[in-house]
Amino acid sequence: MVEKFEKTFVQLAQCEPSPEERQAWWEENKVQLEKHLSRGVFLKLKPIKHDFRWVPILASQKRAVEYL
Questions:
Q1: Cα end-to-end span (Å), the chain
Q2: For residues 60, 64, 66 and 68, what is the CA-based torsion angle, rounded to 10 degrees?
Q3: How many whole angstroms separate alpha carbon 51 and alpha carbon 11?
Q4: CA angle at residue 66 from 8 to 56, to 5 degrees?
Q5: What distance in Å separates the CA atoms of residue 48 and residue 43, rounded to the nearest whole number?
Q6: For residues 56 and 1, what is the distance between their CA atoms, to the nearest angstrom?
Q7: H helices within 1-68, ranges in order?
């Protein structure tokens, strides 16, 4: 199941999605991700709340690179 998300993790690592696209993808897939990833990996990939719209995606990008 995690293989299904690896393409998206690669795109995230390459900074392809916009913050809005990343957040929308997260909202659509967070339940499945939480079921299939360890708690630590899930929390690392979870977008953080921040007023500057790029901070959450940059943090998630770093974690996606670590995961891959």
A1: 15
A2: 180
A3: 23
A4: 65
A5: 9
A6: 24
A7: 3-13, 19-36, 39-45, 55-67
Local structure of 46: helix, strand or coil: coil
User: Dihedral (C-alpha) 20, 23, 25, 27: value to the nearest 10 degrees?
Assistant: -140
| Residue tagged 């007023």 (tokens) | 51
pLDDT in tens, 31-67: 998 998 889 888 888 887 767 666 666 777 777 777 7
Q: Are 8 and 25 in contact (CB under 8 A)?
A: yes
At position 11, the amino acid (one-letter code) is Q
pTM of the model: 0.70
